[in-house]
Input
Amino acid sequence: MKIFESHTIKEIDNATCEAQNIDSLQLMERAANAVACEIITRFFPTQRIVVIAGPGNNGGDALAVARILYEQGYKKVEVFLFNVIGKLSHDCEEERKKLITMDGIDFTEVKRDFQPPYLSENDVVVDGMFGCGLNKQLQGGFMMLARYINDSGAYVVSIDLPSGLFGEWNADVNRRDVVHADLTLSFQTPKLSFFFSENSDVLGEWKLLDIDLDDSMMKEIPTNYLLVEAKNVRPLLKPRKLFTGKRDYGSVLLFSGSIGMMGAAVLSARACLRSGAGLVTVHSARIGMPVVQTAVPEAMFEPDRNENYITDMGVHHTHQAVVAGPGIGTNDRTVDALEELLKTTKSPLVLDADALNCIARRPQLLTNLPSYTIITPHIGEFDRLFGEHNNSEDRLKKAIEMAKYHNIIIVLKGHYTATVRPTGRVYFNSTGNPGMATAGSGDVLTGVIAAFLAQGYRPEHAATLGVYIHGLAGDMAVKEIGEYGLVSSDIANYCGRAIRAIINRESPLF
Ligand SMILES: NC(=O)C1=CN([C@@H]2O[C@H](COP(=O)(O)OP(=O)(O)OC[C@H]3O[C@@H](n4cnc5c(N)ncnc54)[C@H](O)[C@@H]3O)[C@@H](O)[C@H]2O)[C@@H](O)CC1
Ligand SMILES: Nc1ncnc2c1ncn2[C@@H]1O[C@H](COP(=O)(O)OP(=O)(O)O)[C@@H](O)[C@H]1O
Ligand SMILES: [K+]
Output
């Protein structure tokens, strides 16, 4: 699903009106109906609802929502329209005209002074002050109103965007002066700002409402930001042929584990096998042999000369994917071995965890990364590699710059993991849950991505597929085990079921 920038939304609206032979007011009614329906499913008609409308089309939506709710028997609807410069958008004006003809509705048009209504935690506020037309941070009365709503404890439903939040970049915005929604009801496609952790408290739960915007225009308008869903990954998954053997599904070599961190190798290997790789070989410290051979009997083991950590990353056989990182530590001799691997390997590479920390210790190694190497840093590893970042917007911008510059794929992990391709395109993931914030779940992800590389998928696809399937396996496991109890071996064990769910178009994915 494409994530559009706010300034392109008008274009999509216009194309929708033209293609469907409707006017913009009819589209507004459609949007308002969708919002009103959501409110109706959540609150009884006896609920007091305070509607705040701004001067633009976001305000027009809000006025229409107020009218529809009133028509549906919600008699405790109070409406405040902020018309402080004496100019409303055309459709907002039309909605105002419709509303004031309604008998008995409590309507106030604010032109100068404003006495805010009493609000408590028992009330619902519908926030239609500003949406994607916001052109500067809230100031003056609007800022005070946002703070007043936030302090009231009322349940806030924001239309399209919490007022004061921009659709894209908000690093300079003081979140205290932005309306804090409990529920954000946005239209058709998400905004980029939904994917940054700093906006999570402002957005509350967010939901997309289908208002049947024009598909062909949405296909046409370019964007560098996308959200990956089941329907996007399913066409990538290749069916298994009847007449095949394990060699058709590739061989993975995992440089993983060291004394005290053999579990990382176990988890990566298990996830790799559960995601369809034909053969998996773990190369690790000698001490790890009994652990790996017992915990993952399906994997082969290649002992390093060293007892406790890896000192040699020579690749002696043909492997369709090579992984380095999980649990390898950052011993100087391991860094030397990694340097040798980067300079010599011809196989597609996945680098994770300590491999990235090794590179951070010897930053010139970044220039040795083969094209299309997949690196999978979490925020800490990313900042160690590329410098400290104060916020997730700056970090994403840096990831885009680095993916282009080094011609690599960067999987920046977190909630909504962002996979950044060498083109600079960003694919946000839609699966995963907080139960996955547990030791070893990154090791599992590395194994899943490597499995797809080994099976012959292009690195960009292996990364996006791996991230989606890893998150989905976590979502399926959490249903049985719960967020507190989920451990990373559960995620590994569910990978196969996650892949099957996508192939079989299981509900609720499709
Ligand atoms: N495809 C869609 O997403 C649809 C969107 N619609 C609605 O249309 C909205 C966008 O409407 P508009 O483009 O009119 O934009 P807005 O209603 O968000 O705001 C624009 C108005 O607010 C003023 N303004 C902006 N920032 C301000 C600030 N900081 N202080 C004071 N005034 C400020 C502008 O001068 C302008 O008058 C969406 O957010 C959505 O609610 C729907 O009506 C129809 C379909
Ligand atoms: N709150 C969350 N929502 C979605 N996914 C999460 C969440 N927390 C963690 N994850 C996922 O779990 C994995 C954690 O990886 P990482 O931090 O490297 O863990 P570890 O180092 O313990 O293996 C990442 O893929 C991340 O996207
Ligand atoms: K709003």
User: Anything to note?
Assistant: The chain has a mean pLDDT of 96. The two ends are 14 Å apart (CA to CA).
